[in-house]
Design brief:
Radius of gyration: 22 Å
Mean pLDDT: 91
Number of strands: 18
Largest sheet: 7 strands, parallel
Oligomer: single chain
Strand order of the largest sheet: 2-3-1-4-5-6-9
Distance between the termini: 45 Å
């Protein structure tokens, strides 16, 4: 069995190297090869983590939260396994452990920070026993793969039941997650935002979880932060927002973001209110683990989001920000983030409908694109497989746009003819290619 494990690790490394030489990520393939050779490899390696394993689930914010948590633990001198690339299904998770192990099968790690696709939790947990689960939020996402939110809730409920001793770290502002935590009976710490955050941007968002999951009555909200997030209670039964242990107060969103929690001031050069929740989730996790929070401020100052999550580039004289926008809630938060930039700006929106994106793109009609009808938005270019559908959506919002089929051509055009401030919003399968393209452009290499 030891020889099999060693062969699986060596084979995975060879596969990943070959994929990279071919210009592909190869993360999933490397894990698949290792798994086929040794189906018990994940369990063997996961058991070697000396302290806790933390998994991160939720519709939006998983990758940023997971990578930031890893960086924060490493800043405290801990050795951490992490699936940095966001490959969050079974084989991608296998790869993160396999590539962290030595060829002899030994693994030196204090913690594991693992992002997991919600639908994959029930497949992963038989081979990986988490100590903590962070739950960020639940929004509609890829309806043809996940189905409605109730389906995702049931999957997560089953997954949580599989690990009776696992502790939960939950966004208490999400009524769906609060219900899930309550019915699980697991020890839970909640984070949230107690006060409304002032913003000039009005929203007509489609909201989830309008009804109590316990009795079916319509929930009453004091106010909304965005989508369904905010303080709530049921007027018919005892269901209400849980006690918030980690509260973000004194929130400032101008020129980056800042807030206080437990009397500590945290600042980061990120855009978007949703990043308050991501950072707050990380702080909550570190505190729950009992690790001293001594270097988080420094980590936030130097942490660079990866793989197109608010990732910044500079090509010639153009500043470019690449971000993932894959569902209504995420897209609306992206738009809010773009519009907090008071400078003139160009915007490229890339929409694909590959299997990983979901073939159903009707969700575009639930995004509040009307908010980008602003004189500061100098131009809007749509691209991707379903670029024309995106253009039609903008037409119904009375917003002019230009269709350029090839993403490379679209970006080059805005660099050449734009205002020097470019936002590129892409859904899932457009992310890797756009990221790779911008990396090469920034480096001045041949594209």
């Amino acid at each position: 069995m030891k020889l099999r494990t060693m062969f699986a690790i060596l084979s995975a490394r060879i596969v990943q190297k070959a994929c990279r030489m071919a210009g592909r990520q190869g993360v999933t393939l490397a894990g698949k090869v290792a798994w086929k050779i040794d189906p018990g490899i994940l369990e063997k390696l996961a058991k070697q983590v000396k302290k806790e394993t933390i998994v991160v689930c939720g519709t939006n914010g998983k990758t940023t939260t997971n990578n930031l948590l890893c960086a924060a633990l490493e800043a405290e001198g801990k050795r951490v396994i992490c699936n940095h690339t966001g490959s969050n299904m079974l084989y991608g998770i296998v790869t993160s452990y396999v590539l962290a192990a030595k060829v002899n099968g030994k693994l030196e790690a204090d913690y594991a920070c693992i992002e997991i696709d919600e639908a994959s939790t029930v497949k992963v947990f038989p081979h990986l026993t988490p100590d903590y689960m962070i739950l960020t939020n639940l929004f509609r996402d890829q309806l043809d793969r996940y189905g409605e939110i109730d389906t995702t809730i049931e999957i997560l409920k089953r997954a949580i039941e599989m690990v009776p001793d696992m502790k939960l770290i939950v966004n208490g502002d999400d009524a769906l997650l609060a219900y899930l935590a309550e019915v699980s009976g697991h020890e839970t710490n909640c984070f949230g935002v107690n006060e409304p955050v002032n913003t000039l941007l009005k929203s007509n968002e489609v909201r989830e979880s309008g009804f109590c999951k316990k009795c079916g009555a319509k929930l009453e909200y004091e106010f909304y932060h965005y989508s369904q997030l905010g303080p709530y209670h049921c007027p018919k039964c005892d269901f209400k927002r849980p006690r918030i242990k980690y509260n973000a107060a004194d929130i400032r969103l101008e020129n980056g973001l800042a807030f206080t929690v437990d009397g500590k001031q945290l600042e980061a050069d990120y855009r978007g209110f949703y990043n308050v929740y991501n950072i707050l989730a990380v702080y909550s996790a570190i505190s729950s683990l009992g690790v001293p929070v001594t270097n988080l401020e420094a980590v936030l100052q130097r942490f660079s989001p990866e793989n197109g999550r608010n990732e910044k580039f500079r090509v010639k004289n153009t500043e470019i920000l690449l971000n993932l926008a894959k569902n209504p809630a995420g897209f609306n938060q992206n738009i809010d983030s773009v519009m907090t930039d008071t400078r003139e700006k160009d915007l490229i929106i890339v929409i694909n409908d590959n299997a990983q994106d979901g073939k159903d793109i009707s969700w575009l009609w639930d995004v509040d694109f009307e908010k980008i009808d602003d004189e500061r938005v100098q131009s809007i270019v749509v691209s991707g497989i379903r670029g024309l559908d995106m253009r039609l959506r903008l037409k119904y919002a009375n917003i002019p746009s230009v269709y350029i089929e090839d993403v490379k051509t679209a970006i080059e055009d805005r660099i050449q003819n734009g205002c020097g401030n470019l936002y590129v919003l892409v859904n899932y399968t457009a992310l890797y290619s756009a990221h790779k393209l911008l990396k090469k452009m920034e480096a001045g290499g041949k594209v």
